[in-house]
Design brief:
The complex is a heterodimer of chains A (322) and B (337). Chain A is an alpha/beta fold and 322 residues long. Chain A contains 12 helices and 7 strands. Helix content of chain A is 45%, strand content 10%. In chain A, the strands form 2 sheets. A 5-stranded parallel sheet of chain A has the order 1-2-3-7-6, with helices on both faces. In chain A, strands 4-5 form a two-stranded antiparallel ribbon. The radius of gyration of chain A is 19 Å and the shape is globular. The N and C termini of chain A lie far apart (51 Å). In chain B, α1 packs parallel to α7 and α3 packs parallel to α4. Classes of the chains: A alpha/beta (322), B alpha/beta (337).
């Protein structure tokens, strides 16, 4: 399917926003402005944007602890996200969630998740809501190669097939679960093949190639929306940072990240593809990058200046009713 | 007023709430039963028949038979609740908590707080508790204290059919996740139950009987054992103030404290194991907030710190008995520092 100029620019803007957001989070985390832990998504942008560009605001996604990219791709405000990471009152979750639990239900974002494999059963629930109430919406779980081994993920796929739900299981194979290779941890070394064993149509695509992800996701979303049931997609991708910011990355060679940035950068791939096909000119893409950089710079300024949560809210919102 | 069993009261509550709110769905293993078989649909209606007949009125879209897959059931129910349904999920035996706790502990219970107050998770988890059927260590526990200890969860432990109906309707209408604990030996227990829907607020204890000598706090099936013990004690002139908290989260602290201020003596009866239990929690509450009123040590009548045994003779020793309760009440009544 041919994307329009506007759609291409939107996709590039989203991917560039994620990249710049993560680069700045890395800088600000190193400076000490961001408490806790952050798990950065740079390198995997085509996966989140390739899928979410097919989704509507009413569709749901559930994410992983590497959730900033999914959030931005689903339409969360990067400035409010940055304020949340800085633990500020004005953040997306009022400073009570942080990076690992960032969520925006109004945008259909059911949360990053501190529990590996926590998201897929939730997505089965969101898809069940859609089916039961006759909403024409779909739900997508993003899960890493690490989470692909969790029993919750297996149970979720099976139940989605049994109940024929509009769910999509998106596996981002970034080659490492924390500091362990996927070749070691995924017994079959074939996440898509394993998903297919549950009775799902499952494909494997390159995460370097936005267009490959976009096409696979289009089929899966159309299948779900038209009542055809769940699908799975395995995206072969890579991360440019460690498991978390501050990870010494002793498990991979010194040149690996440089090589990945040279050879497997999905933003560079995108630029080359649209340039060769004369779909977008370099000046338009450069302009997007400049705008995104300014946006994220501004978000950091706002986040730094924002107030911390009131002490009172420690006790608030444990329950709705009291 | 008609007499109904707890089973009938729960079934009626579910049916009435499903009629009035299309967002209410029942989901679990064999909640209807017979799916995919050549035999009849609704073959079970829940393993002990609580959801029998619902599929006939509400259909497969709202009475959802699942595989045996507790993580997916609880996770799906949590995900459905936060996106617009009001699911009543069945965790057949509370012991199965072990294979799905993440979805309850880390997901459903925490959405609202983690997301800065923006989430509502109107989820009910119905689950069976209790020993007494020789179902042994993995089908007999009373784990409400675990749910009670988790901020974000509410926990209901009804002891009779009237309360069961009113509390289940309240649970379904509540916007927070509620764990609803049904004792497996009490489903046939009958009481007067109104036909129309009604609610009982959470955090309001029921005073089962009045007395000025000893406060007895008991939960679930133990309310009946405590009442039996109180009958025997009354013949000897010892009057118990018997309190059934009905919900352990929230807990009606005021009713317990007011009673102890009057009696100065407390016995807590709990079928669960004693460490970090409701019995221990209530004892600590009274030690903390009514210490000056106490005329004797607090006594807890609980199961021992063991798994639930299989042999009927051992199981009988495991479960608190009316005799043990009566002995504890006599001990605190007769205590003279």
């Amino acid at each position: 399917m041919q994307l329009s100029r506007e759609e291409l620019l939107k996709a590039y803007r989203d991917m560039a926003t994620i990249r710049r957001f993560e680069e700045r989070v890395q800088e600000e985390f190193s400076k000490g402005g961001i408490p806790g832990f952050v798990h950065l998504y740079a390198g995997e942008e085509a996966a989140a944007v390739g899928v979410c560009s097919h989704l509507r605001p009413q569709d749901y996604i559930a994410s992983t602890h590497r959730g900033h990219g999914h959030s931005i791709a689903k339409g969360c405000d990067p400035s409010l996200m940055m304020q949340e990471l800085f633990a500020k009152r004005t953040g997306l979750c009022g400073g009570k969630g942080g990076s690992m639990h960032i969520a925006d239900l109004d945008r259909g974002m059911l949360g990053a998740n501190g529990i590996v494999g926590g998201g897929p059963p939730l997505v089965v629930g969101a898809a069940l809501t859609a089916k039961t109430l006759g909403r024409n919406t779909v739900a997508v779980s993003f899960t890493g190669d690490g989470g692909s081994n969790q029993g919750t993920t297996f149970e979720a796929m099976n139940m989605a097939v049994v109940l024929k739900l509009p769910a999509i299981f998106m596996f981002e194979n970034n080659q490492y679960g924390e500091g362990t290779a996927y070749e070691y941890a995924v017994g079959s070394r074939d996440i898509a093949g394993r998903a297919a064993g549950f009775g799902l149509p499952a494909v494997k695509v390159s995460g370097d190639d936005f267009f490959a992800v976009h096409e696979a996701a289009r089929e899966a979303v159309e299948r779900a929306r038209s009542g055809g049931g769940p699908s799975a997609i395995e995206v072969d991708t890579c991360r440019f940072y460690g498991h978390h910011s501050g990870d010494a990355q002793l498990y991979r060679g010194k040149d690996e990240v440089r090589r990945l940035r040279d050879e497997r950068d999905c933003l560079k791939h995108f630029r080359r593809r649209v340039g060769e096909a004369r779909l977008l000119e370099a000046t338009a893409l450069d302009r997007v990058e400049n705008e995104v950089t300014a946006l994220i710079d501004h978000a950091v300024e706002i986040a730094r200046a924002a107030p911390p949560p009131d002490p009172d809210v420690l006790l608030h919102d444990v329950y709705v009713s009291y | 007023m008609p007499f109904k069993s707890i089973r009938q009261a729960l079934n009626e509550a579910l049916a009435q709430e499903m009629r009035s709110d299309p967002r209410v769905v029942v989901i679990g293993e064999d909640v209807a039963g017979g799916a995919g078989t050549e035999g009849q649909r609704d073959a079970y209606g829940g393993v002990l028949g609580v959801t029998k007949g619902l599929i006939g009125e509400f259909g497969e879209a709202r009475v959802i038979d699942t595989p045996i897959t507790e993580s997916a059931i609880m996770g799906a129910a949590a995900g459905a609740a936060v996106t617009g349904l009001r699911p009543v999920a069945e965790l057949m035996f509370c012991d199965f908590l072990g294979v799905c706790f993440d979805q309850i502990l880390n997901q459903a219970a925490k959405f609202r707080y983690m997301f800065g107050g923006k989430a509502k998770t109107p989820l009910v988890i119905r689950t069976m508790i209790g020993a007494g059927r020789s179902a042994a260590a993995q089908h007999s526990q009373s784990l409400y204290h675990i749910f009670t200890s988790v901020p974000g969860l509410k926990c209901v432990v009804p002891s009779n059919a009237y309360d069961a109906k009113g509390l289940l309707i309240q649970a379904i209408r509540d916007d927070d996740p509620v764990i609803f604990c049904e004792h497996k030996l009490m489903y046939d227990l009958r009481a007067e139950v109104p036909d129309e829907p009604y609610t009982i607020p959470f955090g309001e204890a029921n005073i089962v009987r009045d007395g000025d000598d000893v406060t007895v706090v008991a939960l679930s099936r133990m309310v009946h054992y405590a009442d039996e013990a109180a009958d025997a004690l009354a013949k000897d002139g010892i009057e118990c103030d018997l309190i059934d908290p009905r919900t352990t989260s929230p807990l009606d602290e005021d009713t317990i404290l007011e009673s102890v201020e009057r009696t100065g003596r407390l016995v807590v009866v709990d079928e669960a194991t004693p460490r970090c239990s409701i019995a221990t929690d209530v004892a600590a509450l009274v030690a903390d907030k009514a210490f000056a009123a106490l005329k004797s040590p607090v006594r807890r009548v609980t199961a021992p710190h063991t798994p639930v045994p299989f042999a009927p003779s051992l199981e009988k020793l495991y479960i608190p008995s009316p005799e043990r309760i009566a002995a504890a009440v006599r001990e605190v009544y007769e205590y003279r520092g």
